[in-house]
């Protein structure tokens, strides 16, 4: 009588209950803080004072924090900068990563092993803060939005994931296209990329979230507040306790609660990523498993 593997056995009642409980706790740990942030940002001064801080139970809706937040040019400009950096950086990063991954996935390509070794080396050794700063400033990128894009244009992990996926594409399919007269560019554009839309979408999300959440390079390379992304504005609001200059309700001299303003900035920063994530979430497992199976 053959014994089935453990993972093929029917889960016990205790095991199923434990998994459900763990899943519930993890979900609650994510949803409850986000709920509190949104509710607090929509609360009035009286509600926040009554709760003594963060609000969990809404008592009316007050949009004064958002109205006063977007009444200032600082937040609007910061959001615009973040969108430009995220969209432009993601487009550039995906283009470079796809080209590099396809070249490294083809056996016999020029300097194949050397280039792959150099990319893998970045997993172990970073350039360091001072050399990176000297390089960026030496290239004349100081006070330039390109300083937020070019230093992180290619991520080694994303490159390896894409390369592994490209290597799993049947070689016979590519060989048949070459027999029909297709060159490398046509093979990449008409065969490889259409078959890799799922993993490319996941990698694009990785890059987009990275660009959207980055703030350290902005601290180093951008001295003009007009060029600061939303994350840097969020940092000044939350960590340094600064409120937006001149924040008050339009037509009044009474500012909304500072805590509501801070939570409004957090909500504005988080919501774009939450909107995009569900559209590519179903592709995550496929992309990560592909990178883990063959590298």
Shape: globular
Taken as a percent bin, the fraction of beta residues is under 5%
Assign the CATH superfamily of the largest domain: MetI-like
The CATH architecture of the largest domain can be named as Orthogonal Bundle
Q: Structural class of the secondary elements?
A: mainly alpha
How many DSSP E strands?
Answer: 0
Count of helix runs: 14
Give a verbal description of the structure:
The protein is mainly alpha-helical and 295 residues long. The protein folds into two domains: 1-62, no CATH class; 63-293, MetI-like (MetI-like fold). The protein is 66% helix and 0% strand. It has 14 helices and no strands. Helix 1 crosses helix 13, helix 8 packs antiparallel against helix 9 and helix 12 (230-238) runs antiparallel to helix 13 (258-280). Mean pLDDT is 80; it is low at 245-254 and 291-295.
Features:
mainly alpha, MetI-like fold, 14 helices, globular, disordered C terminus
Secondary structure blueprint with pairings:
Elements (H helix, E strand, L loop, with lengths): L12 H29 L3 H7 L12 H7 L2 H33 L6 H10 L7 H10 L17 H12 L3 H9 L4 H12 L1 H17 L2 H6 L8 H9 L19 H23 L3 H10 L2
In short:
With 295 residues, the protein is mainly alpha-helical. The protein has helices spanning 13-41, 45-51, 64-70, 73-105, 112-121, 129-138, 156-167, 171-179, 184-195, 197-213, 216-221, 230-238, 258-280, 284-293. It has two domains: 1-62, no CATH class; 63-293, MetI-like fold (Orthogonal Bundle), CATH 1.10.3720.10.
């Amino acid at each position: 009588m053959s014994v089935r593997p453990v993972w093929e056995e029917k889960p016990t009642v205790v095991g199923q209950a434990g998994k459900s409980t763990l899943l519930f706790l993890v979900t609650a740990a994510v949803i409850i803080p986000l709920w509190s942030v949104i509710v607090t940002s929509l609360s009035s001064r009286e509600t926040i004072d009554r709760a003594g801080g963060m609000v969990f139970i809404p008592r009316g809706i007050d949009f004064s924090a958002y109205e006063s937040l977007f009444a200032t040019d600082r937040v609007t400009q910061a959001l615009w900068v973040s969108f430009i950096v995220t969209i432009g950086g993601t487009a550039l990063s995906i283009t470079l990563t796809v080209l590099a991954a396809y070249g490294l996935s083809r056996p016999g390509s020029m300097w194949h092993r050397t280039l792959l070794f150099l990319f893998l080396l970045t997993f172990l050794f970073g350039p360091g803060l001072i050399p990176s700063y000297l390089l960026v400033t030496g290239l004349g990128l100081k006070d330039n939005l390109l300083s937020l894009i070019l230093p992180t244009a290619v991520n080694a992990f994303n490159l390896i994931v894409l390369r592994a996926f490209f290597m799993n594409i049947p070689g016979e399919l590519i060989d048949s296209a070459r027999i029909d007269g297709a060159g490398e560019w046509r093979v990449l554009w008409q065969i490889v990329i259409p078959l890799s839309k799922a993993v490319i979408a996941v990698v694009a999300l990785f890059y987009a979230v990275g660009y959207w959440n980055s703030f350290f390079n902005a601290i180093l390379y951008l001295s003009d507040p007009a060029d600061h992304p939303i994350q840097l504005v969020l940092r000044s609001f939350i960590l340094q306790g600064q409120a937006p200059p001149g924040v008050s309700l339009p037509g009044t001299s009474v500012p909304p609660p500072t805590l509501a303003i801070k939570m409004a900035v957090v909500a504005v920063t988080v919501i774009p990523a939450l909107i995009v994530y569900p559209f590519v979430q179903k592709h995550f497992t496929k992309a990560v498993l592909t990178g883990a199976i063959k590298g």
